[in-house]
Write a structure and sequence with these properties.
about 500 residues
Amino acid sequence: MSKQKEAKEFVQKEKQRSNSLKSRLKAATTGQWIRAGIWCLIYILFIVWVGSFWWLLLLPVIFDAFVTKYIPWTWWKKSKNKTVLAIMGWVDAIVFALVAVYFINIYLFQNYQIPTSSLEKTLLVGDFLFVSKASYGPRVPNTPLSFPLVQHTFPVINTKSFLEKPQWEYKRLKGFDSIERDDIVVFNFPTGDTVTVNKQNPDYYVSCYYEGLNSLRYQFLDTQPTYEDIMAAGRKAIRSKKEEYGKIVYRPVDRRENYVKRCVGLPGDMFEIRNNQIYVNGVPQEDHPGIQFNYYVQTDGRYLSSDMQTKMGISKEDRHILNAQYDFHLISYLGMDPAKPIYHFPLTRDMYQKMQRYPGVEKIAIEPYELGGDVFPLGSGKGWNRDNMGPFYIPKKNETLKLDKDNFALYERIIRVYERNTLERKGEVFVINGVETDSYTFKMDYYWMMGDNRHNSADSRLWGFVPEDHVVGRPVVVWLSLDKDRDWFSGKIRFNRFFKNAKR
């Protein structure tokens, strides 16, 4: 054998010996072992907390990154090409940041911006919040393979930001607190499971209901169509109007839109709204100071200045003035004079008292409940409205409720959709998962959420109960607040709201 061949074989053997697990373990420094031990311990504790031991499959990868180094994670650092070093340096930093953000958003906290005035006076449009996931316990994600910082759709390209598979079952980790009455809560939109892309307000189910009513208005002249008939006709109508409604998509729980409201009803409560007053277990509840309702305000002919309305705290999007010609019937119903200015905006109780004393104001009337439209549950025939509802029971985990024709409409979505049972009603008989029964035991806790801006809030009065698996977290603090009614040089930044407590 030639010396050249012998030398080549020797190099190969040495290379194999150096690549062996034993040699790599021997070559690892004390510092490498310490760092590997710390990160592996942290990772194991995380897995125990999460309770999903499938994540243990990644433990060898973490160990390899610090000790054995079979995977060349930092191959680019050995390159002599400055362009490669620069590009890969940025890629490495971005990937690390995205991974960090992913886990922070899921298990610790996320940013949330107030988009509407439903909590006006408490949380304002343009408030940016830190939402604590740990307060009520973070959820293990339903869709673990998702892009961080994007809820469900990539902007511009309009494609899904998550993979539908795998989908994990609901599990919530131990939190520091539990939801209490009057807490402000961020949650996923309960009826946002099915969405028509081109028309998302009203939601899919409300659109189905009204499209169904419109489709069947000439078919049931002598009898009233059932709720099932109406919804079936509505779904068919929406599918046929592709240009108006667009594509119909399904979204898992954790990929639905985030809403923020105040929790006014807890699991196990008997809840009622009577003339805009909330009653829990028959006891009237003290209103939060920020609670406001819509009012019509008639003056003696003078106009209310924009500056006055701003100082009063009425946002520009909430200011309206009635048109004597187009709003004639409403003005007549209110008993007001169409020849005088009539304003429409929300007022708190303090603002109402100030408005009563304001020069030129002659008459103030609260907005009639008839203008609030239909409320939950649609098609029930209960005659409820946004200002008068109930009483009804808010489901509590492991509690059993007797079902009847009067409460079926309230709980059928819980049984069928949120808790994934087959449900059929045959007259007075209920069939759940193929078994006839007259009762149901709830698997989750449920909540009743409402906005403080009571007449300008899409909340539980429209779409019903919020399941516990939809709860995202608790707003903790306002870290930035921008007034959309002002420019950068006239007070756009609300400095007085920085670090404001956002819990209640």
